Amino acid sequence: MDPRLIPVKLPSSQYDICIHSAEGPSGHSLIQLGSQMRARGLSGKALVVSHPVIAKHFAAGLMQGLQTAGFTAQLCLLPAGERFKTPRSIAKIHDAALAFGLERSSTLIALGGGVIGDMAGFAAATWLRGIPFVQVPTSLLAMVDASIGGKTGVNHPKGKNLIGAFHQPRLVWIDPTVLKTLPGREFSSALAEVIKYGVIQAPDVFEFLEDRPKLSRYADFTPADLQHLLVRSAECKAWVVQQDEKEGGLRAILNYGHTLGHALESVTHYRRYLHGEAVAIGMVAAGEIAQRIGWWSVAEAERQRRLIEKAGLPSQWPTGIPWEAVLQAMQADKKVKQGRIRFILPHQIGQAELTDQVNLEQVRAAVEAITAA
Question: 4-181 adopts what CATH topology?
């Protein structure tokens, strides 16, 4: 299948999202990354940040390609999981950068899912006040969302992604064949972010998913269908980022489902739900709010719920979570402005809007309406 390039053109930088599934001797195309980095003016030392499971599958081929292209490469391994997305992990990357002698002309490479990408990107943004970095996402969630757009950061104990920086990559290299090793639950979780694009911007993406006979596993997609899904997701994310690089306005719509989703992750200590699972519940809640204030029809809210469940995602709020804890977590959300919690709510499939005209009683009523019996 031919590679696809989606350019991201920003006032301060330009880079490519390259979707390339041609298999090399190592079973994937990551061996080509080094030559692609050289073609974009990168050279010298490269520190690859990953975690042990991903490194076991893919690091050897990637490192071989870097060395063949003339890079001096070293691996830095971190524990996997959202609960390790902390300043302590960033300090470990900084320690490795210091020991390896990374300079301003060196490159930091993120090989992993969204957590690794966020941490490696933030470490690159803060090492020597900013060095180049490259995203090599190995999870569907990172491919369709986290690796694109330059958002980097870590969590604070009181809220998700409160510590971070905007730092755009020099290249995003996406190889769908690496998803063969992705656990089924993580593949399903990522579909929440794809469904999000359908609701906020791209009805064709929503309908494409509705038309799939099955949806929740890697094996449910042909290579051509999966490439189409990745290309359209990248195009959606790139378009929004190009209009609003640093979330001054429009880009906030990418957080559809995330206000309550992030709160749910926080109050369950990042142990009960994967990110996409929490976002899926958050989208159902946002749809309930939109329906209650007259923005969205019952029929379209139901279409969203059915598609979320078809993707193998949860659609009900869990029982036993104190509302006060949820409220506290929401108030730590990055979209809060002048003390008001703001929500992205849909008007129809393909159109959504940021608003602060929702009161907390409406939010609570919506959450109670979708709470598991």
Answer: Rossmann fold (3.40.50)
Flag whether 355 is marked binding: no
- Specify whether 232 is catalytic: no
The whole-angstrom separation of Cα 48 and Cα 25 is 20
Q: Under a CB-based contact definition with an 8 Å cutoff, are residues 13 and 40 in contact?
A: no
pLDDT in tens, 167-216: 999 999 999 999 988 999 999 999 999 999 999 999 999 999 999 999 98
Per the listing, tokens 């979708």 go with 370
CA distance 110 to 48: 6
Which sequence spans correspond to the domains of the chain?
4-181, 184-369
Which position among 262, 303, 334, 342 bears the catalytic label?
Answer: 262
Cα separation of the two ends of the chain: 47
Beta carbons of 14 and 6 less than 8 angstroms apart? no
CATH entry 1.20.1090.10 includes domain 184-369: yes
C-alpha 91, offset from chain centre: 22
Contact 265, 236 (CB under 8 A): no
Cβ neighbours, 10 Å, residue 332: 17
Quick check: 70 pLDDT over 90?
Answer: yes
List of residues 6+ apart from 339 with CB closer than 8 A: none
Length of the chain: 373
Is 237 among the residues known to form the active site?
yes
- CA–CA gap between residue 106 and residue 128 (Å, rounded): 10
Query: What b/e string do you get for 312-326 counting C-beta neighbours within 10 Å, with b at 16 or more?
Result: bbbbebeeebeeeeb
In this structure, what token pair is assigned to residue 349? 């499939």
Q: What pTM value is reported for the model?
A: 0.91
* Cα 172 to Cα 30, 71, 117, 333, 369, distances in angstroms: 11, 18, 11, 27, 40
Active site residue 258: yes
Check the annotation: does 139 bind a ligand.
yes
289, 295, 301, 307: CA torsion to nearest 10? -100
CA–CA gap between residue 147 and residue 155 (Å, rounded)? 17
Amino acid at site 57: H
Separation of alpha carbons 251 and 239, rounded Å: 10
151 annotated as belonging to a binding site for a ligand: yes
